[in-house]
């Protein structure tokens, strides 16, 4: 009997039930897809590092290395279990051609290497170690296949300044656990030992990876890092550890998964709110039927069971569909990630989303159970009379116009509203409904956030300002020169002269990065790269304070502030020319380069350990050619140096990440529009059903359809406008905080969450986010409302009397 009652109840609410299934299905789809992606990502970075036996700490060095000196250091360190010195041959982009395409404009640093067969392995696409490269062939990183379309069998050409030319056939593509994705600015290309020796005799510069493995990474890395930085070992390059390698691996997919899950949570919130709204309306409309069932002996418990069966069945159907759809969608979302890192994840990729689907069903059942508590306090006599005890009136009349008449609150008069009759009736109804109006505004605000927030994240990643917010100076051109020996300073002078003599450049700024020891938060010593120069000429975006203006001032990255336990306005003990000095911290900025722990100052370079040199230049107004042309000319004029346009630097390193997030933002925006349409259809049908009798009477009296539609359209558009305003404010405030919290976890690691290590300001496109998307959302809601208003034509007095 209960099952028949449930089926009858479902038939009576077919449209509302279908809408609720759609909302819950959309939520389950996003939640299951996002959870499956996170389950695949969880541990994936560590899995691929373990699979390749990647080092725990790496010092990159441009120049020669005394391998015996490094071995002696490793033997004296009890925490070190193994070490390796791997020579790499760096090639200029202009000397490397992939299938005939010059790499002169590429910001990637291409390094030839003979793969090791013991540790720090290079893996093929089947995750087998590449240990034997045949002469005349080359293995390229998967990056080149995915981003450039290179295929097996294509030709790689390497040239030299003396007319040397060597052609190598692409034998396959490799997975590099430490330099895999685009955001890692260096790439290793595997060749045979014979080919490497032959090419090195004609072109290229030697670099080295000094790699170390430790017993306990969590406890030993800091000690080893400090010991290495305090030694005199080679350090002309950045020092990175496994956390940076994991970041390179999962950054793009982590952002995608987080956005998908955020969308799922917001959709679920809307679904539960709509469930509450629909259930309350159903109870209000079915009050007399419920009273009759109670009068003939059906218990309130059985009536609650009927509603639980209906909504539990709908939730189970939606969850099952969402689970199947999510499991089908996840491989599409993770396709690029899987190509880079290989197969990851196991049963948890299915079990985790299945658990989420089950929680969704339980959440719906719990929400229905809580909402049905009112049946325990409702007597058949009260229901037959249509009265509700005073203490329960407010909760029992969510969508009924009786709420205004029984609440004791004076209703606004129609003649006081300076509007035509139809819109005035709509506004008057909203004012009378109170709580349900606020609920509808909240739902539309969630839809607005779901449309705007992912898009704002995508536009931020694609904006030109994003680079300056990550510690990269606002310049049109950039040039970097690692310190490799005595001639590095002379080559740096040549770079400055070339920049100064080029009439197309308005100004340029020279920077020298030196390594200094500073005191950490717990008294430990930290090696801090300090970039010195004129930081006001081509500035970065400062989170707090300003750029240093003298030798007594310094600015720290946000992560460096966290590591040293200092704040802007305090002093920092730093070792300069062998003596400890106190410098005042005048500013802080976001930085992801070189591990994120950096500083900016105006310190002397004489007698210090120089890590690298850099130049930034800005084009003069009306300069002939663009930044790419100037960069190409300067690169040709300065052999062995990399000069590139700043826009190319951002496009090539962050472009793939931006594209992935943009595609995900488009998907969530589409979901939000569908959500808004479903919501509008459901609410409009509830409104029309609740007022079917008055509408039918007006139709019988000859009232025009346009007049009948006006109040409903007014209600919907007014609540939508309020929701858009609230959603825009939430995106700018709460969304900004969520965005930076996400970046903290990805860039600095979970241990630095809620420490303010990310202060990136979202860059919002006013035309897209402020105009186009709100108009699109409004158009979707209006179209859905007009579609639902067609039901007004079918309401007639004789039909209602027959029912």
Structure overview:
The protein is an alpha+beta fold and 803 residues long. It folds into four domains: 1-56 and 234-380, no CATH class; 64-76 and 83-216, no CATH class; 399-465 and 657-803, no CATH class; 467-653, no CATH class. It is 52% helix and 18% strand. It contains 26 helices and 22 strands. Strands 13, 14, 15, 16, 17, 18, 19, 20, 21 and 22 form a ten-stranded mixed beta sheet that branches. Helix 3 packs antiparallel against helix 8 (242-285) and helix 17 crosses helix 25 (768-788). The two termini are 22 Å apart.
What brief labels describe this structure?
803 residues; ten-stranded mixed beta sheet; six-stranded mixed beta sheet; elongated; ABC-type antimicrobial peptide transport system, permease component; ABC3_permease_C; transmembrane
In short:
By secondary structure, this protein is α+β, with helices and mostly antiparallel strands. The protein is built from 26 helices and 22 strands.
List the helices and strands and how they pair.
Blueprint: H1 2-12, H2 14-41, H3 44-51, E1 57-62, H4 67-76, E2 80-91, E3 96-98, E4 101-102, E5 109-113, E6 122-123, E7 137-141, H5 142-148, E8 155-159, E9 165-176, E10 186-190, H6 193-200, E11 205-214, H7 217-230, E12 239-241, H8 242-285, H9 287-295, H10 300-333, H11 335-341, H12 348-371, H13 380-385, H14 393-396, H15 402-406, H16 421-433, H17 435-462, H18 465-468, E13 477-482, H19 488-501, E14 505-519, E15 525-532, E16 542-545, E17 553-557, H20 558-564, E18 571-576, E19 579-589, E20 599-601, E21 609-619, H21 627-637, E22 642-645, H22 646-690, H23 692-700, H24 705-748, H25 768-788, H26 797-802
Parallel strand pairs: 5-10, 7-9, 15-20, 17-19
Antiparallel strand pairs: 1-11, 1-12, 2-5, 2-11, 3-4, 3-8, 6-9, 8-9, 13-21, 13-22, 14-15, 14-21, 16-19, 17-20, 18-19
Transmembrane segments: 255-279, 306-329, 349-370, 439-462, 666-688, 771-789
Domain ABC3 transporter permease C-terminal: 264-368
Main location: membrane
């Amino acid at each position: 009997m209960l099952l028949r009652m449930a089926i009858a109840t479902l038939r009576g609410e077919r449209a509302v039930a279908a809408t609720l299934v759609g909302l819950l299905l959309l939520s389950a789809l996003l939640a299951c897809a996002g959870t499956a992606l996170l389950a695949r990502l969880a541990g994936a970075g560590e899995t691929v590092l373990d699979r390749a036996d990647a080092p725990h700490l790496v010092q990159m060095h441009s120049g020669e290395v005394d391998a015996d000196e490094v071995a002696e250091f490793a033997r004296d360190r009890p925490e070190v279990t193994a070490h390796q010195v791997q020579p790499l041959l760096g090639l200029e982009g202009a000397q490397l051609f992939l299938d005939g395409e010059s790499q002169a404009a590429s910001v990637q640093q291409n390094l030839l290497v003979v793969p090791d067969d013991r540790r720090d392995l290079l893996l093929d696409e089947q995750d087998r170690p590449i240990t034997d490269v045949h002469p005349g062939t080359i293995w390229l990183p998967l990056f080149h296949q995915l981003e450039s379309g290179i295929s097996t069998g294509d030709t790689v050409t390497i040239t030299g300044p003396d007319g040397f030319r060597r052609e190598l056939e692409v034998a396959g593509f490799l997975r590099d656990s430490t330099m895999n994705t685009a955001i890692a600015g260096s790439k290793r290309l595997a060749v045979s030992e014979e080919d490497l020796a032959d090419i090195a005799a004609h072109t290229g510069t030697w670099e080295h990876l000094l790699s170390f493995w430790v017993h306990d990474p969590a406890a030993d890395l800091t000690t080893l890092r400090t010991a290495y930085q305090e030694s005199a070992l080679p350090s002309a390059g950045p020092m990175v550890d496994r956390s940076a390698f994991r970041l390179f691996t999962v950054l793009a997919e982590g952002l995608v998964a987080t956005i998908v899950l955020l969308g799922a949570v917001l959709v679920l919130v809307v679904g539960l709110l709509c469930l509450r709204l629909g259930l309350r309306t159903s109870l209000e409309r079915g009050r007399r039927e419920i009273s009759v069932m109670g009068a003939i002996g059906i218990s309130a418990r059985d009536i609650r069971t009927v509603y639980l069966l209906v909504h539990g069945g709908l939730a189970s159907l939606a969850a099952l569909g969402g689970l199947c759809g999510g499991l089908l969608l996840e491989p599409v979302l993770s396709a690029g990630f899987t190509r880079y890192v290989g197969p990851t994840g196991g049963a948890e990729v299915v079990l985790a989303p299945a658990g989420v689907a089950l929680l969704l069903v339980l959440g719906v059942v719990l929400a229905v159970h809580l909402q049905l508590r009112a049946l325990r306090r409702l007597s058949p006599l009260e229901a037959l009379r249509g009265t509700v005890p005073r203490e329960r009136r407010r909760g029992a009349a969510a969508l009924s116009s009786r709420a205004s008449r029984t609440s004791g609150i004076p209703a606004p008069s129609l003649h006081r509203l300076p509007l035509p009759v139809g819109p005035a009736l709509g506004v008057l109804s909203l004012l009378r409904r109170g709580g349900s109006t606020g609920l509808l505004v909240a739902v539309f605000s969630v839809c607005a956030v779901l449309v705007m927030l992912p898009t704002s994240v995508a536009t931020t990643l694609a904006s030109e300002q994003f680079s300056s917010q990550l510690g990269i100076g606002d310049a049109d051109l950039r040039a970097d020169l690692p310190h490799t020996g005595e001639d590095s300073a002379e080559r740096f002078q040549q770079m400055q002269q070339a920049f100064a003599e080029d009439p197309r450049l308005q100004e340029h700024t020279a920077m020298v990065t030196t390594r200094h020891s500073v005191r950490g938060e717990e008294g430990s010593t930290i090696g801090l790269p300090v970039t010195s120069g004129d930081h006001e000429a081509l500035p970065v975006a400062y989170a707090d304070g300003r750029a240093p203006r003298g030798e007594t001032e310094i600015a720290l990255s946000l992560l460096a502030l966290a590591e040293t336990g200092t704040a802007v306005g305090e002093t920092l003990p730093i070792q300069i020319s062998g003596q400890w000095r106190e410098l005042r911290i005048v500013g802080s900025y976001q930085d992801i380069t070189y591990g994120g722990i950096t500083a900016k100052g105006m310190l002397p370079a004489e007698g210090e350990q120089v890590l690298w040199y850099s130049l930034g230049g800005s084009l003069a107004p009306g300069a002939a050619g663009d930044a790419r042309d100037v960069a190409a000319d300067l690169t040709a004029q300065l052999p062995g140096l990399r000069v590139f346009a700043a826009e190319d630097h951002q496009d090539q390193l962050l472009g793939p990440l931006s594209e992935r997030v943009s595609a995900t933002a488009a998907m969530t925006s589409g979901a939000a529009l569908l959500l808004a349409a479903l919501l509008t259809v459901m609410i409009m049908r509830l409104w029309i059903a609740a007022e079917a009798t008055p509408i039918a009477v007006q139709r019988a009296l000859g009232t025009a359809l346009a007049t009948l539609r006006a109040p409903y359209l007014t209600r919907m558009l007014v609540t939508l406008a309020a929701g858009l305003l609230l959603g825009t404010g939430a995106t700018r405030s709460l969304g900004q905080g969520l965005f930076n919290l996400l970046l903290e976890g990805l860039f600095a690691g979970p241990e630095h969450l809620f420490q303010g290590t990310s202060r990136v300001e979202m860059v919002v496109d006013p035309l897209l986010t402020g105009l186009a998307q709100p108009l699109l959302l409004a158009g979707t809601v209006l179209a859905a409302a007009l579609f639902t208003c067609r039901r007004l034509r079918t309401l007639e007095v004789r039909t209602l009397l027959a029912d």
